[in-house]
Amino acid sequence: METLHKSTTEASLTAVPTEILNYIGGGLKPAQTGKWISNFHPASGRIYGQIAESGSEDVQSAYDAASAAFPAWSNSTAKYRSDLMLRLADLMERDLEVLAFIESYDNGKPLSVARTVDIPRAISNIRFFATAILHGSTEAHDMDGIALNYTLRQPIGVVACISPWNLPLYLFTWKIAPALAAGNTVLAKPSEITPASAFHFSKLCIEAGFPAGVLNVLHGTGPSIGAPLVSHPGIKAVSFTGGTQTGATIASIAAPQFKKLSLELGGKNATLVFADCAFEETVSETARAAFSNQGQICLCGSRILVQRSIYDRFKEAFVAKVKLLKVGDPQDAQSNIGAIVSEPHLLKVLSYVELAKSEGGKLLCGGNRIQVEGLENGYYMEPAVFEGLDPYCRTNQEEIFGPVVTLIPFDTEEEALQFANCTPYGLASSVWTSNLGTSQRVAAKLQTGIVWINCWMLRDLRTPFGGVKQSGVGREGGWEALRFFTEAKNVCIKH
Ligand code: NAD
Questions:
Q1: Mutate which of 109, 175, 235, 241 to test ligand 1's pocket (most atoms within 8 Å of Cβ)?
Q2: Do 168 and 107 touch, CB atoms closer than 8 A?
Q3: What residue owns the CA closest to ligand 1's atom 11?
Q4: Which of 199, 225, 360, 398 gets the highest tally of CB atoms within 10 A of its CB?
Q5: Counting beta carbons within 10 angstroms of the beta carbon of residue 369, is it exposed (0 to 12), middle (13 to 18) or buried (19 or more)?
Q6: Which residues belong to the active site?
Q7: pLDDT of residue 3
Q8: Low-confidence residues in the chain, pLDDT < 50
Q9: pLDDT at 483
């Protein structure tokens, strides 16, 4: 185990879990396989702990616990589930600093981001769905005096929630909160790259008094545990957020078993900057959209399309802004960009910098791996900005999921839409203009599930969230998520 580096406080460090256990049947347990995998500290590149590498026997134990818990949980009142979830949210709020520290430590993201974005949003996710179920209603259809139909929305059973490493607790809670609130029991699998916050969360569930088996958290890799989870015949629905390729694999297993499936997948999002935008605000917000969380947000705007009449001015201001971003120790309050999540991912992102060069791109700034003093083996790189690349080249078509963006000039609204829509992905886009007509015309024609006008990642949890094309199937958020985690049953009463 490493000696942890100096800038961390003793109190927060003791909270960082060095042994990540499963939460099954109300207790914390090592994997039945007896296997462990290493947990890395991206800021220093050192191994700081070990993670239970579970297998199909652990899936079966968790399934048995969830199945036993289902009758009581699904028949409990909405008020009971709501109160319990609100108690859990209060405990998360109490531990906000600890959770933020753990998230930053495990993921490499700036502590300031974990403290102001990830953990507050994770708490909001729990509170949102805990209260949403108190306000639900279902439809009734009267058949002209012949009969009355009403719709029951009933929990599905035991469901699986699988989440990625980029916003670990944020996306983990975004799935389990509606699943639990709707009355399902859950087998959840956080990413093996960032399992620590979900482990602390498991302890808070115990403290909050969650009944055994209602939520089970399993740790391990995609092959060791994700695949057995998806293929388990008792799992009735799978909610997955992660890469498009993994989503395709999961769909190929789940579809023949007729499981309900929600897939939130990759993105290659376009930022459309029109000449009449509010220039200064657009420059700083598009830089934020490009490089937040080291560019590792599925919503990051990595292709910045700029109207030609302001292209040179925008390029100069944007590159100047990016050069001011400080890459450094995630726990340093001055760091805007922390460490990339893992060494393999850093190498993948750096390989795209080389690809962009080989495709004829001109590197305007950044793109190098760098060393941070005292953390020489950490996974750091300078944010990179390219220009001169064809919209149809691989750099502009494939998801990089790191701090690499391209600038692309366009002449007309039609051309902007053509470039924006020319990738296989369709998650999100943002449009920067002061013309209401332009914004509405373009929003209607963008092939994405989400369009932000003069903003980015401004989220209202009631709104539908998800992508089109290879960015996913289905929607999360608000009633969409509660609908996914319930079966609609039509009851018809003849008068
Ligand atoms: P990933 O697909 O490698 O892994 C996601 C999760 O799936 C992890 O928990 C992983 O262990 C598990 N997994 C891997 N193989 C599996 C299998 N065969 N069966 C079941 N589970 C399996 O993705 P990642 O690298 O963790 O995350 C990055 C990707 O997630 C990016 O493509 C990003 O765009 C996407 N993402 C999408 C959204 C969205 O809302 N659309 C949000 C965040 C991230």
A1: 241
A2: yes
A3: 222
A4: 225
A5: middle
A6: 264, 298
A7: 39
A8: 1-6
A9: 97
